[in-house]
Amino acid sequence: MAKQPDEWNSAIDTTRPSIARAYDVVLNGKDNFEVDREFVAEIVKVVPEIYDVATYNRQILGRGVRFMVDQGITQFIDLGSGLPTVENTHQVAQRAEPGSHVVYVDNDPMVLAHGRALLAENDRTAVVTSDLRDPKAILADPAVQRLIDFDRPVGVMLVGILHHLHDDEDPRGIVEAYMAAVPSGSYLFVTHFCDSSQDSRDAEKKFLALLGTGRFRTVEEITSFFDGFELVEPGVVPLPLWRPEQPVPSNLTVGQRLMYGGIARKP
């Protein structure tokens, strides 16, 4: 793995798995440690398709960003973005609309270290190291203020991250805080682990035991994040069913039903 700046090496905890690094593992990335790979190996025991699930999540990110660009959205806040990999939000958005602005937010110091290198010559994109549970601080961050015009619609993205917030951390309130800061015509994009099978419940136990987070919510609970907003078709559905670009089998596997997602417009 590439050497990181000394100040970030001291902040990286290699004794326990990280959300961002574990996601990097299942996306077949190289920016992870043995502890992250061991965690994923345990998840594979209960959900053998977990690598495919990560791919479904990455694919819907691309479809969702392209959809929002088609609706005129050219600025995005990607909360809990994870480590840079292929088809990142800024690459998808700026391919569709070169003037798009993107701010990535993640609390893992490796995300900043890698993101800075990736974005060194891209002045329309920034990485903020902060905890998404503090909307006030993030919305006031200089990079966010520089790149996001809050008088124009914004794409607020919480892709594969809200399930890492416990109920007592008020994930619904956090979503509402971000959406309160953006104007009418903005979009909310959420994907989330779903309590959709016994395998999903077994996976939740593994996540909570080994990672400390991983709340698999029901479809109704996931849908409630969009309360007050206008869900776009087809609503909150298993990831492969959200505006697919290729045929999807009629009978979905456990992995294909492990995460649900949707996008809604702020009226």
From TrEMBL:
Pfam families the record matches: Methyltransf_19
Any one Gene Ontology molecular-function term assigned to this protein's record: methyltransferase activity
Alphabetical GO biological process terms: methylation
EC number(s) reported in the record: 2.1.1.-
Ranges that cross the membrane: none
Broadest EC class assigned to this enzyme: transferase
Protein name: SAM-dependent methyltransferase
Naturally occurring in which organism (per UniProt): Nonomuraea mangrovi
